[in-house]
Design brief:
Length: 173
């Protein structure tokens, strides 16, 4: 194919999502575990990032979250495999949700750092992947989390370690 020729197939992907702003006040009146369970069972619409990577909850427990994600060609890098940003997004999501599941009402979090190790490539043929995140230590203002992504055969394709900052969402002035 030359630089001026058109691709033989054009593909598109439409992403639909619900604006989370409408639900923020309601969400933060619940504990993190209650919030995540509400998202997992569909009582609260999924956050917009979920539609980008096909992210869905499998299980939610305090300090331990499992999610699946569906890679597709729209996640590909120039060499024909899933871009590292897909791995990082899925791992950051499962790490953050594992921390979120430990928080009381009115408390949030943000990622301070994440280290991702890429062990195997993911392609469309890999099919859905499963990400598992678990809190290894939670303090008053910081939480430490580990996570991995596995393919349908249970092989680890990526790992992560993350640190999250715990934030009071309604600080007193």
């Amino acid at each position: 194919m030359t630089a001026t020729s058109e691709p033989t197939t054009n593909r598109s992907r439409t992403i639909q999502y619900h604006s989370p702003e409408e639900d923020k006040k309601k969400l933060f009146s619940q504990s993190g575990l209650e919030q995540l369970r509400s998202l997992a069972d569909g009582r609260t619409p999924a956050p917009p990032i979920s539609s980008h990577v096909g992210l869905e909850f499998v299980s939610v427990a305090e300090g331990d979250v499992v999610m699946t994600a569906q890679p597709d060609e729209s996640h590909y890098n120039p060499i024909g495999s899933v871009h590292g940003g897909f791995f990082a997004t899925v791992l950051d999501s499962v790490c953050g949700c594992a921390v979120h599941s430990t928080l009381p009402a009115g408390v949030g979090y943000t990622s301070l750092e994440i280290k991702v190790s890429f062990l195997r490539p993911i392609t469309v043929e890999t099919g859905p992947v499963t990400a598992h995140g678990w809190v290894t230590r939670r303090g008053k203002s910081v939480a430490f989390v580990e996570a991995d992504i596995r393919d349908r055969d249970g092989r680890v394709v990526a790992t992560a370690s993350s640190t999250c900052l715990i934030i009071d969402m309604n600080p007193t002035q």
